[in-house]
Amino acid sequence: MRRADSHPAMAPLRLGISACLLGQAVRYDGGHKRDPFLAETLGRFVEWVPVCPEVELGLGVPREPIRLEGDAAAPRLVAAKSRRDLTRAMTRLARARAAELARLDLVGYVFKKDSPSCGMERVRVHGGGRPRRRGTGLFARALMERLPLLPVEEEGRLGDAALRASFVERVFAHARWKGALAAGMTRARLAAFHAAHERLLLANHPAACRRLGALVANAGKRPLRTVVADYGAGFMEALRTQAPPSTRRRAPRRPAPPAPRRSPTGRPAASRPAPRRPRSSP
User: Fold this and answer.
1) DSSP type of residue 4
2) Of the four, 60, 156, 211, 212, which is 20 to 30 A from 247 by CA?
3) Residues near 282 by beta carbon (within 8 Å), at least 6 away in sequence
């Protein structure tokens, strides 16, 4: 509690993160991928929960590189040189770790891009010629399946200012939604939550905002638990998937001032000298 404030200070938001992004030397080559924005800037305002599933699996540091192989929809995790198949072991660990993280009240997660365990998207999948960037790391897949509403991003994408702002916005929105659920949800409180976030939803996805508004308006016709679950999923999806720019609401533009009239010579009419008056005769 701060002395000059009658309200308790808000606890820092808790986010999961690939441990190497905080500077921990856990990569296969004994190095790290410390990200200054995550470690220094955002790190001042959040509580990080670092995770390295490859080390937790017991692969050691340094270790043999691993990679995804086979079908991009259901790839195998294989050691590149020894050909040891780690798919079952990593899947088992990932599901157990995701269940543990679900109990830590996370409001976001930042993955390491291109990682066969932690990559969120476009991870290389080997086999049958040139690697295809269509895979998802096994740990990342398990966590996103276990916590589908959790805002997630990769550190590479956070270099884009718009994606970074969107991620931070989603993290705070998810924290508010979880807080509203923890306080106990009623139909009146759901309506109040929607009213408080209506402008945010309209700015991101007007069509989704209208759907959520209709869901709230008709909340009395269905079980409250079902309505709340549907609203939470729609709310986070609307913030994650923005509508095309042409359908978003924009502030009306002010009409441009009319251009000054020009004379046939091309000079502005206002700049022409006034005609001289004829002198009166004596």
Assistant:
1) T
2) 156
3) none
Report the alpha-carbon distance of residue 34 to residue 85 in Å, rounded. Answer: 29
- Measure the CA–CA gap between 87 and 139, rounded to whole angstroms: 10
Q: Count how many residues are written for the chain.
A: 282
Nearest to 119 by CA among 130, 133, 107, 108: 133
**C-alpha dist (Å) from residue 50 to 20, 31, 56, 246, 250:** 8, 16, 11, 39, 39
Q: Could you tell me which of 151, 157, 162 has the C-alpha nearest to residue 235? A: 151
**pLDDT profile of the chain (282 residues), mean per 10:** 43 94 97 96 96 97 97 95 97 98 96 97 92 96 97 95 95 97 97 97 95 97 97 96 54 50 50 51 44
Look up the pTM and report it: 0.82
